[in-house]
Amino acid sequence: MKERRTNVEKQPNYFKKFKIKSNPNCCCHCCCFCCNCKCKPPFPSPPNCNYLVYVTDAGQIETPDNRVSVINTSTNTIVASIPVGTAPLEVAITPDGAFGYVPAYFSNNVTVFSTATNMAVATIPVGINPLGVAISPNGTLAYVSNQGSNTVSVINTTLNTVTATIPVGLAPQGIAFTPNGAFAYVADENSNAISVIDTLTNIVVATIPVGARPRSIVFTPNGQFAYVTNEASNTVSVINANINTVIATIPVGNGPVGTAITPDGSFVYIVNKGSNTVSVIDTSTNLVIATIPVGISPDQVTILPNGTFAYVTNQLDNTVSVINIATNMVVDTIPGFNGPTGIKTGTICI
Question: What's the longest Cα–Cα distance across the chain?
Answer without folding.
Answer: 83
